[in-house]
Amino acid sequence: MPFGAGSLIYVDAPLLIEKGSKRLHKLSRKRVGRFKRTIATLSPPEFQDVMGKEMKNRIALSAALSVALASSAFSQEIVLGAGYSDYSRHGAEDGVILSMEYIHRPFYEGRVFSAQLAGAIELVETGDAFLGGGVRGKWDLQQDWFIEASVLPGAYIEGTALNDLGSTFEIRSQLAVGKRFKSGKALSLALSHKSNASTADINPGVNALTLRWHIPLD
Questions:
Q1: How many Å apart are CA 85 and CA 23, to the nearest integer?
Q2: Residue 207: CA atoms inside 13 Å, Cβ hemisphere, count?
């Protein structure tokens, strides 16, 4: 049916809105209202031109939101590690260490640096265990290389008496360098140290070197 000049046309053209974004939803409703009032007085050629521009805007916004959501989804990670733990105390038992870390999506994200909350659990073959949570920072380098550092206060339980680190409260500090692949996964090498920061009578500490595999979460 041809459109006559001045005829009233109702068009349902809402923008693609991410669920939960109340502010964007409100702006979209206002824009749709203005859009309806504008096209009501357009001739057919003008109507088609406006509709074409509106469709382009919708496609552009949809693409931008998709990229943002994908970036947000892949900013969470599970990191699995395996390596060797070296205790400083004389007579302590060294051993193989296995670790699993969870890295949350960034609460701060800049052009190069981002900061996230993180948690970790570590088990040593001697029966020692550590569970901690804290903050992790990451610096993005060229060609998908990165450097990360984390500080995780937590609880430590020794498996043998000579592996006692002085107290249950221990702080794990860690520095790592890694490479991210096109799949989103990454490989890193980390050096960590646990100690009680001299809050106990003794503070022998323990170091660990681990190879880690980063798995993005959808």
A1: 50
A2: 6
Cα 148 from Cα 161, distance rounded (Å): 33
CA-wise closest residue to 9 among 34, 41, 55: 41
Supply the pTM of this predicted model.
0.66
Do residues 136 and 45 both lie within one domain?
Answer: no
Assess contact for 93 and 124: CB atoms under 8 A.
Answer: no
Range of the domain at 54: 22-73
CB 50 within 8 A of CB 159: no
| Side chain identity at residue 154, one-letter code | G
| Domain total in the chain | 2
Q: Read off the DSSP letter of residue 99.
A: E
Which residues of the chain register pLDDT less than 70? 1-74
Output the pLDDT for position 140.
Answer: 97
- Convert the pLDDT of each residue in 30-80 to its tens digit: 555 665 565 556 555 554 564 456 555 555 555 444 444 444 445 799 999
Q: Which residue among 34, 54, 73 closes a domain?
A: 73
Radius of gyration of the chain (CA): 27
Q: Are 155 and 169 in contact (CB under 8 A)?
A: yes
Domain of residue 134, CATH code: 2.40.160.20
Number of neighbours of residue 184 by Cβ within 10 angstroms: 15
